Amino acid sequence: MAGEDTIPVLTVPEAARLLRCSKAHVHHLISGKVPGATPLPSLWLGRRRLILRTSFENWLRNSEQNHGKLL
Fold first, then answer.
1. Which residue has the higher pLDDT, 20 or 71?
2. Which of 7, 12, 39, 44 could share a disulfide with 32, CB 3.0–4.6 Å?
3. E-assigned strands of 1-71?
4. CA-wise closest residue to 48 among 23, 22, 21, 18
């Protein structure tokens, strides 16, 4: 069984768990509704919203460097 760090995509609940926030807040981040935060890149797979792990890590790093705050 593959470890969690080797999975190349994150679901909204997984991203929420990593950010320690609600799924609704992740959806707000994706749609660009959080003031001061760059929209979180994501893609649709059918009706599911997925976030590439590399995009998530880059977004997190850029958010920290550019804004000094995440959410």
1. 20
2. 39
3. 9-11, 43-45, 48-52
4. 23
Residue from 12, 47, 14, 37 nearest 27 by CA: 12
- The answer to whether 12 and 26 are in contact (CB under 8 A) is yes
pLDDT score at 1? 44
- C-alpha 61, offset from chain centre: 11
pTM over 0.85: no
Can you tell me the distance from the alpha carbon of 45 to that of 41, in angstroms, rounded to the nearest whole number? 14
Q: Is the dihedral of CA 28, 4, 20, 14 positive or negative?
A: positive
Cβ pair 1, 20 in contact under 8 A: no
Sheet holding 9-11, edge to edge: 9-11, 48-52, 43-45
